[in-house]
Structures are given as structure tokens and as C-alpha cells.
Amino acid sequence: MARARSKTWRLRLLVVLIILLILMLSRLRKAEGESDLLVYWSAARLLATGGNPFDQTMLQTLQRTTRPNPVAHPGQDWAAWNPPWLLVVMLPLGLLPFDWSVRVWLLCSMGLILMASIWTWRWSALSADPRGLLIVLGSTLAFGQTLSCLHEGQISGLVLVGLVVGLWCLQAGHDRWAGAALLLATIKPQIVYFVLWLVALWIIRHRRWQVAVGMAGAAVACMSVLWLLFPGWVPAYVHLLTSHPSQMFIMSVATLGGLAYALWGTHLLRFAGVLLLPLTGAVLSLANSEGWLTTMNVALLLSVPLAPYGFNFDQVVLLPSIIQMIVWMWRGELARGWTWAIASGLLLMNIALLRMLLLPAFYNHWLAWLPLVLAGLYMLAWKQRRPAAGRKTNELQRKRA
Question: Which residue in 116, 21, 16 sits closest to 323, CA to CA?
């Protein structure tokens, strides 16, 4: 009976998600999801057709031919400076016409973000409660940075999935799979630098070398594909990295360093992430006491606002911290008053975020506040938790069920 009820809820969830996807796709304008995807698609297209995916002239020609209007597509004329294994991941999109790839990637990106949310819920809640899962999925789709990531055609969902799946595998003892999944997180190392640093130290301390083997194996497999399709990719990629002018010091970025530069013209906070080094031991100890989900969330809440650069859609990696707070509230680990306070804080935070994202124009540096507010809410929720009471509530619920 319980299994039949669970299957019914899963079917209803699937129907609801499909309806949401159809409604979202039906209301999209042509330019939705195209802006940044044009950069990744053009590089993957050149790789798939025998061109040089790191040649800026070839990239600009293809981008301008595909979308001639540079005003409507501000990502045009950029190159994909991410680690080269990203191109192998995006290669299937390069085989499609751009109009098709936009729709396919929108579905894939949404699927990745939802998968990371479901995985986080199951990891932290240890329950298949469909009602709580529905709240998590709704919160994921309503989160401003989820919508921003989808709107811009960004790849931050890959980073999110790489972190969640990789660290879950790490905690579960699936070391090689952990390393392979964490390779996805490295496509934006400037966002996840502190988490990767903690994982590296943990591997050394516990001699879990198979994690490194898994990551190296996945990287070699990707680079083998690159050598097969474009044998000269190594010097071409090095030339791209060394020849283009640095953009991180002139772009508006959603970090404290970007905000400090916009307000006072100083680059003093661009590399403030080094200030986290003295906290390495304290945060790493959470992996043993609280698990890797909490460790990841604390590390990201500390490091994302101090990143050298990063944009508002990159803040989608903070989604697991929101889900973990939802789990704490759902399991009754917070008093009712604190549950209302944290839930209201999350709601007001997202309303303010959506209001800013709907402005005709805004600078990324004005969104440096989001990780700070989220970190404050997370700290309050963590401090007010009552794990024992939460476990007792869960046990009573199971008995009643």
C-alpha cells in the first residue's frame, strides 16, 4: 500500500514538472537562454566540425554569422576560457543547429538543477517524503539564480551537479565516481576553489587516492577526445589563455571584490579568498562531524562572496544550503517561531533578488549581498537546530505512518 502511494506521488510530481516545463518553454522568447550559450555552442561547434575551438577569430565569425545582432547577444565575441574538458561535455550540442541546441540545453540545464535538488533532499532528509520534495522542487524553480542561470543559457548547473554528486559519492565511499563527478565542478574553479582545496586536503589526510584517480581518469578521457578531434588543442588553449586581455578586473561581478572596485576603485578584495586559509581546519572538521553536505554549504557560503570573480547565475551553487534549511524546518529541528523566521527570511531574500533581476538593467556587483544574507540565515538556522527533537519527530511520524 505504501509503495503504491509512493508511486502515485512520484507520478504526480512527474506530471507537475512536465507541465511546468511545457509552460515555461511555451512562453520563451527567441533570445531566452541564448546569451552565454552562444559562446559554449560556438566552441563546441568548431570542435565538432574540425575547427579550432580556441581561435577567437573563428569564434567571432561563427557567432556573428549565427546571431548578427551583438546588442541582443552580449555574450558574442567571447571565447570559452573554461578548462578544456567542458568542450567535450558540450560537444553533443555542437552537433546541433544553434536554435535546437538552445532548447535542448534549457531542458538539460533545468534537469541538472532539479536533479541536484532532489539528490540534496534525499541526501539530507533521508526520506522519500513526496510533499517535502515538492516544496524543494518548487523552491528550486522559484529561486532567482536558477531562473537567471536558465535565462542566460549558463553552465553553472554542471558545477552544482558535480559538487552534489561528487561529495555524496565521497561520503558514501565511491571514491572513483566522486573524483569523476568533481571534475565537472572544476569547469568554474573560481567559484568552488575552497571546496576543492578542502577535498584535496581530505584526500591526503585519509589517503583516499582513488578519488584523485577517478578525477584524473575522467580528465584523461576528455582530453583524449580533444586530441582525437583536434590534435593541436594544447598549444591553442595555452595561446588563448596567454593572449587575451584579463577581463576579471574590468567586469562587474557579484562578489565583494567586484563591489569594492565599483564603489571605491580598488582591487584589494579581489583575492580575499586567501583569508579563508586559517579556517581550513575548522571547516574540514565538519566533514567528520556533520558530513560533506554541511561542509560544502559552509565552504561555499564563505567562499562565493570572496571569489576572485563570479556572476549572479553562479550563485546557483548555494541552492543546497537553502534545501538543507528546508529539510531542518521540515523535520521539526527548528522551533515554530524560528521556522517562520527562517522561512520568511528566505522568501523576502528571493523576492528582493527577483525584483533586482527584473530591472531593465543592473550591475552584477549589486548582487554581492545574496551570499551574505543567505549565510546569516544559515547560521541562525544551524544555531537554533534541535537535532534530537527532529529525530524524535521523525520517529513518531514513521510510527504513525
Answer: 116
d(CA 179, CA 157): 18
Intra-chain end-to-end CA distance of the chain, in Å: 11
CA angle 368, 20, 117 (to 5 degrees): 50
Return the C-alpha cell found at 275. 583569508
199: its cell numbers: 577535498
How many angstroms separate the CA atoms of 363 and 312, rounded?
A: 10
Grid coordinates given for 353: 533578488
Helix (H, G, I), strand (E, B) or coil at 126: coil
Tell me, rounded to whole angstroms, the distance of Cα 287 from its chain centroid. 20
Cell, residue 192: 568552488
The amino acid present at 88, given as its one-letter code, is V
- Determine the pLDDT at residue 251: 78
Spatial contact of 30 and 21, defined as CB atoms under 8 Å apart: no
Residues 294, 286 contacting (CB under 8 angstroms) = yes
Distance CA 187, CA 196 (A): 12
Residue, of 73 and 387, whose pLDDT is higher? 387
Question: What span, in angstroms and rounded, lies between the C-alpha atoms of 80 and 93?
Answer: 14
* pTM beyond 0.85, yes or no: yes
pLDDT tens profile 324-362? 999 999 989 999 999 999 999 999 999 999 999 988 877
